[in-house]
Amino acid sequence: MTRTVRRTSFRLTPPGADLRGDYWTSDAPVEDAALVVCHGFKGFKDWGFFPWLCEQLAGRTGVAVISFNFDGSGVREVDFDDLDAFSHNTFSRELWDLEAILDGLAAGRLGDLEVAPASRFGLLGHSRGGATCLLKAGLRSQVRALVTWASISSVVRYEGFVERWEAGETVIIPNARTKQDMPLERNVLDDVRANRDRLDVLASAASLTIPVTVVHGTADESVPFNEARLIADAVGDLGRLVGVEGATHTFQAGHPFAGPTPELEAAVEASVDLFARVFG
């Protein structure tokens, strides 16, 4: 069953953050449940496949779907128009942002937007967003199901930048699509060093008692497929590893979005299957 879906924008401003998002609802909604979609590094809620993904999830499961830009995404109104926020983003900051979204859903309000209160959550995260979802699921009992797409298995990923940060330099990350030089300060390194136990992705995965579907392309050029195996092994019997044969990090999709690919449709099928079983 595919439902008619409506998209409504919201703006949530918890202390120290500015979260812009969309609330996707269907004409036959499932009560007391919501799915939250989290983008990854150099991603944002309107990148490529994300709007299509949200519409698919809401239309095919009936569960309300929320997508949003992390405060440190660097995106407010248009592509990467707040590079200062991007440069100071951390994993802990993303966990706080996601907590604010879940708190708003539980209270029935996202900024000025009144929404149906939810006490059961599903999370879906792509790449770095997958790690954020794995960490949050281990901290919040209302999370009942989790899907990762091309997720990293560890937050310790910046070894090549350490010497430059220690020397007081700002690391520059080129954005091939926008042609921007995106600065990255050492905040992320300091956060990882100060919070190693709390930011242990595989330990959080091992603690989960909810169903988890780990979706990953076998030809992922950014996050090796073995990281999916590590996550699935950590989750154990409640985990399902879905290897999408030949799929890249973004499942052959790009920005602007040119329509779904077979690889992307396979990822959506695996996600809908889990969420429909848990919340249907």
Structure description:
There is one protein chain. With 280 residues, the chain is α/β, with parallel strands linked by helices. The chain has helices at residues 50-61, 83-87, 91-107, 128-137, 162-166, 187-194, 201-207, 225-235, 262-279; strands spanning 5-12, 19-26, 33-38, 64-68, 109-110, 113-114, 120-126, 143-149, 171-175, 180-184, 212-217, 239-244. The strands form three sheets. Strands 1-2-4-3-7-8-11-12 form an eight-stranded mixed beta sheet, sandwiched between helices. A two-stranded antiparallel sheet has the order 5-6. Helix 3 (91-107) packs across helix 4 (128-137), helix 4 (128-137) crosses helix 7 and helix 7 (201-207) packs parallel to helix 8 (225-235). The radius of gyration is 18 Å and the shape is globular. The model has no long low-confidence stretch (mean pLDDT 97).
Mean pLDDT: 97
* DSSP summary: helix tally: 9
**Silhouette:** globular
What is the H-and-E element order?
A: EEEHEHHEEEHEHEEHHEHEH
Unreliable spans are none
> Main β-sheet: number of strands, strand sense, barrel status?
8 strands, mixed
Fraction in helix: 25-40%
| Portion in beta strands | 15-25%
Number of strands: 12
Short description:
With 280 residues, this protein is of the alpha/beta class. It has nine helices and twelve strands.
List the helices and strands and how they pair.
Layout: E1 5-12, E2 19-26, E3 33-38, H1 50-61, E4 64-68, H2 83-87, H3 91-107, E5 109-110, E6 113-114, E7 120-126, H4 128-137, E8 143-149, H5 162-166, E9 171-175, E10 180-184, H6 187-194, H7 201-207, E11 212-217, H8 225-235, E12 239-244, H9 262-279
Parallel strand pairs: 3-4, 3-7, 7-8, 8-11, 11-12
Antiparallel strand pairs: 1-2, 2-4, 5-6, 9-10
